[in-house]
Specification:
Number of helices of chain B: 5
Oligomer: heterodimer
Order of helices and strands of chain B: HEHEEEHEEEHEEEEEHE
Mean pLDDT of chain B: 96
Strand content of chain A: 25-35%
Low-confidence stretches of chain B: none
Shape of chain A: globular
Number of strands of chain B: 13
Structural class of chain B: alpha/beta
Number of strands of chain A: 11
Strand order of the largest sheet of chain B: 4-3-2-1-5-8-10-11-12-13
Order of helices and strands of chain A: HEHEHEHEHEEEEEHEE
Radius of gyration of chain A: 18 Å
Helix content of chain B: 10-25%
């Protein structure tokens, strides 16, 4: 077994430098790498490009990095619910590239899988395709989209082991598996780091080969963005 | 004239037994409430859920189980979770049978604009561009006119596009229309709405052939 376990988040983010490109898992506030984000805020790394479906809310998720002006550019599919984001975008302080959600996922997956680029029909005929190579396959137009290149991927899983194997829970899975192995270094934080051998190999979502560092996260807030319920009758 | 619930009820009639359905935010979300209960339908949420159920009971909310609108949800027996790439494989690979979404404008050739208004804060397209580019069966749920009373069924969209030549059917507060290669074909009128009212509210080419029935529910 190749050991990927690091003792804490400080060790996990070793090598992070200004102006790097990070991938960060999560959809809204669900399944975000809370511990890694908190540490990136703490060390004050600057000028970073973040590839993440969303940009958090004002006081949580990537919103925490935005508050400290640590992000130079966001590559996302949807960035509502964040006033500070809007302010920085409109003032020109923050560069924003909006891309279709499926394209975002597949550009991560392409990087993970060793494909330099993919063709997708999404965005053809819209401003998303402007300046991009297009091609007809069987009478339908597609847009060439390149695999992402990133220095670090920060992902969050439910359970993991020191071999780097990961299991996700519910829809908190989202972009996390697509980002594993898609950057030079993948850092996985887990709610529960279990002894090697206790996870059933049949149930592993991401094999440890895609993960360089794994640590047990602490104090997960797991904030709910839209609490919707029905009454018991 | 229909309200939002009326639009949702009429669209629910388009949902057939055995369909996998993706619902957008707004009126489309309401459709799930009015699907006949004697058919089997699975709802897909593009953040990675197939087999979505209703909202959880108070106290049962789970931050790890949400829909694409970031609302807490439940799952039904037979449900599954998956990553975002697989979710869009379902969509791009045409495994989802029906997509229902809202729009700001639709043009008579089926172009749709629903993600950006120049000069206003842009929030992003989310999964809309992937959905409209790939789905074979797209129904748009929207009001026939905007808040200023201007038609949303146009010869050509004025707003930045989400997708080209993709919308097949539109259900509004006034009518059901199909997109054909000659323009918007009027299929049904909402209860109490005249053909003249629909003509007035439609800027794009409107095709009226024979008598146009009133919707039934």
């Amino acid at each position: 077994m190749i050991n990927k376990k690091v003792e804490n988040v400080q060790e996990a983010i070793q090598g992070v430098k200004d102006n790097m490109t990070f991938m960060l898992g999560g959809f809204g506030l669900s399944g975000i790498p809370e511990n890694s984000i908190a540490e990136l805020v703490k060390i004050g790394v600057k000028g970073v490009t973040c590839i993440s479906n969303n940009a958090g809310v004002d006081d949580f998720g990537l919103g925490l990095l935005l508050q400290k002006h640590q992000i130079k550019k966001m590559i996302s599919s949807y960035v509502g619910e964040n006033d500070e984001f809007e302010r920085q975008m409109l003032s020109g302080e923050l560069d924003v590239e909006l891309i279709p959600q499926g394209t975002l996922a597949e550009r991560c997956r392409a990087a993970q899988a060793g494909f330099p680029a993919i063709y997708t029909p999404a965005g053809f005929g819209t401003e998303v395709a402007e300046g991009k190579e297009t091609r007809d396959f069987d009478g339908k137009m597609h847009v060439l989209e390149y695999a992402f290149k990133a220095d670090f991927a920060f992902v969050k899983a439910w359970k993991g082991d020191a071999a780097g194997n990961l299991i996700f829970k519910g829809s908190a899975r989202n972009f996390n598996p697509c980002m594993c192995g898609a950057a030079t270094i993948t850092v996985a934080e887990v709610e529960e780091l279990v002894p090697v051998g206790t996870l059933d190999p049949n149930q592993i979502h991401i094999p440890g080969i895609f993960v360089q560092r794994i640590f047990q996260g602490e104090n997960y807030e797991k904030r709910i963005e839209q609490r919707t319920v029905r009454q018991r009758n | 004239m229909l309200d939002k619930i009326g639009i949702a009820k009429r669209i629910a009639k388009e949902v057939k037994d055995g369909y996998y359905v993706n619902l957008g935010i707004g009126i489309p979300t309401l459709v799930a409430n009015y699907v006949r209960d004697d058919i089997e339908v699975d709802f897909q949420s593009e953040n990675g859920v197939l087999g979505m159920g209703p909202f959880p009971f108070e106290g049962d909310e789970d931050a790890d189980i949400i829909n694409a609108g970031k609302q807490t949800i439940t799952t039904l027996p037979g449900a599954s979770f998956f990553d975002s790439a697989m979710s869009f494989s379902m969509i791009r690979g045409k495994h989802v049978d029906l997509t229902i979404l809202g729009a700001m404008e639709v043009s008579e050739n089926g172009d749709i604009a629903n993600w950006k208004i120049p000069g206003r804060m842009v929030k992003g397209m989310g999964g809309a561009m992937d959905l409209v580019a790939s789905a074979e069966n797209i129904i748009v749920a929207m009001m026939h006119t905007n808040k200023k009373g201007e038609s949303k069924l146009l010869k050509k969209c004025s707003l930045p596009l989400t997708g080209v030549a993709c919308v097949k059917k539109i259900v509004t507060n006034l009518a059901v229309l199909e997109v054909t290669n000659k323009g918007f074909k009027l299929i049904e009128r909402a209860p109490g709405v005249s053909i003249d009212e629909i003509k007035t509210a439609t800027e794009g080419t409107l095709i009226i052939e024979g008598s146009i029935p009133e919707m039934s529910f």
